[in-house]
């Protein structure tokens, strides 16, 4: 068994993220995920910054995976995702089928993130053919569901072709939305949020892409 540290889903300043990952380099996790997985308007930390942090972590002996957006809506976002995919060094966590396609076109391996909503062995077989090397189980599924699904994978002869990852600790990122609930609460248009999540108080719902019912959509200040 190996342990992974998932991506930070909160909107932290770049300096806070850098400090966090400096400490993470010395933690017991074998794999570290990092990258913007929630909202493309969070521009305080850019693609190049994430890749530099990834290189630092890799130098400490960690396997590094670059996490990507769970909901891709614009061509500009797709262009930025291509920079992640074309990084030339690190594995990609695909949380949107658009990223799966980008990796498949380049014949690159990828991790299927929990946001892909993959619920059966036939879908896993399709993703495996496209290059999936690890599958993160959707967080809303049960232990029994996982056991049954893995049995289906054995019947299809694919069980030993990919790793399985399960969230074991932390808030559950249950849902994503194109509507910014934080901007709406402040009567701001979605395209002019500025972004609103950066100025919310602790305990307030944040993030354009998560619904207000998501337990992980709470502002956290370290």
TrEMBL record:
Keyword set, alphabetical order: Hydrolase, Protease
Entry GO MF terms: peptidase activity
Record-linked Pfam families: Peptidase_U32 (PF01136)
The keyword Hydrolase is annotated on this UniProt entry: yes
Any one GO BP annotation for this protein: proteolysis
Keyword Hydrolase attached: yes
UniProt-recorded name of the protein: Putative protease
Origin organism lineage: Bacteria, Pseudomonadati, Pseudomonadota, Gammaproteobacteria, Enterobacterales
The encoding gene: yhbV_1
